[in-house]
Amino acid sequence: MTKIVSSWIDNGILLVKMQSSPVNAMTAELGEALKEIIPEIRDSNARAVIITGTGKHFSAGGDISRFTQMHSLEDAEKFVTDVQRMFDEIAALPMPVIAAINGTALGGGLELALACDIRIAGKKASMGLPETRWGILAGAGGTQRLIRTISVGAAKKMMFSAQPVDAVEALRIGLVEQVTEDDDPLDEALELARTIAANSPRAIRNVKCSVNEGYDLPLTEGLAIERKLWADLIPHGDHIEGAKSFFERRPAVYPD
Fold first, then answer.
1. pLDDT given for residue 192 in this prediction
2. CA-based torsion, 26, 31, 34, 38: positive or negative
3. Which spans in 61-107 are helix H?
4. Active site residue 131
5. Where are the beta strands (DSSP E) in 35-160?
């Protein structure tokens, strides 16, 4: 059965698990389930979100049989527009999103991980964009997000060769931020999520907004965004609680 299972862990951490037997392929059903849960995540008070798969696969990618059914330019453009929009919405979620990559993340699976803010991989994880092997390219943001995550040369090597990289290589080239000592990265992802959730949710969201909006802009325009988002925090008063907790040597307590 294909579905998305979401559950609250603690301190505002939302865990989102993909279940699409046997390899968590990005089928039409899984895509619809992801689309349905995105507004719920966006409108929630989650301080951090973890997306992971079940079993030995994060997601083995798109359903290749769907591509063979496309013959017209119109069908192709509609399909790729829909999947790009879905991953754009994940990338635009206001809170930090961590991809806990358990096992295989290929094609659309890696594109989903690239739409997340941080990627933590299990030691046996495997990641790649093999679409050129099937006569297509990574169309859910893969060609663009990959070159913004790792070097252009490393990205081209992955896409031209259609060969996956293991967790060690992914860490070396900057595709993931951390590799865990066991196969399941969920514990490490939860530890990081808890660390994030202890900080000011407003400040975290403004940091994400500042980085995402300013990334491709000239420095002067990026600094203007940063100034605006810095000043926006002051009326809410989280900085007062932060200062008090510092001087009182206690953990800060921030509202959602």
1. 98
2. positive
3. 64-67, 73-91
4. yes
5. 48-52, 57-59, 97-101, 104-106, 118-121, 126-128
Active-site hit among 36, 40, 111, 188 = 111
The answer, yes or no, to whether residue 146 has pLDDT greater than 80, is yes
Using CA atoms, how far apart are residues 94 and 45, in angstroms rounded to an integer?
10
Residue 27 has phi, psi (to 5 degrees) of: -75, 170
Query: Is residue 1 very low, low, confident or very high in pLDDT (cuts 50, 70, 90)?
Result: low
- Strand ranges (E), the chain: 3-8, 13-19, 48-52, 57-59, 97-101, 104-106, 118-121, 126-128, 165-166, 178-179
Cβ contacts of 191 within 8 Å, gap of 6 or more: none
Sequence-distant (6+) residues with CB within 8 A of 219 are none
Q: Which of 32, 36, 40, 131 is catalytic?
A: 131
Enumerate helices (H) and strands (E) in the chain, giving the number of each.
11, 10
Helix axes 108-115, 73-91, angle to 10 degrees: 40
Question: For the CA atoms of the chain, what is the radius of gyration?
Answer: 19
Q: What is the pTM of this model?
A: 0.95
Contact call for residues 140 and 83 (beta carbons, < 8 A) = yes
Q: Is 17 left (phi over 0), alpha (psi -120 to 50) or beta?
A: beta
* Per-residue pLDDT, 65: 74
**pLDDT tens by residue, 98-119:** 999 999 999 999 999 999 999 9
- State how far the Cα of 67 lies from the Cα of 148, in Å rounded to an integer: 26
